[in-house]
Amino acid sequence: AIAKQLTRSLVAPKPQTVDSLTDREREVLVLVAQGLSNQQIADSLVISERTARTHVSNILSKLGVASRTQAALLAIREGIAPAPSAS
Asked: Which residues, including other chains, have CB under 8 Å from residue 69's CB and lie 6 or more apart?
């Protein structure tokens, strides 16, 4: 039974939740949800654009999503980032 459960978890790993993100990754995710580019995120957090890109890549991987848009929607759904206001 344990071997079956382990095999299932390895074959179909579940995406992690926003709880798995570091504090910095959460900061970056909020900025992604605001529609900022990697360069804008870097400028805002006083980090290099490459570091911002790495954070975004790690976020996408940890959340099991394929795009910044999906990550942003997840952040809004989880209450980490505010929904954009209708203008």
From this structure: none
Report CA dihedral (30, 36, 40, 42) to the nearest 10 degrees.
40
Identify residue 27 by its one-letter amino acid code.
E
- Cα-to-chain-centroid distance, residue 50: 16
Q: Is the dihedral of CA 9, 23, 58, 83 positive or negative?
A: positive
Q: pLDDT for 47-67, tens place per residue?
A: 999 999 999 999 999 999 999
Between CA 27 and CA 18 the distance in angstroms is 11
What is the pLDDT at residue 13?
54
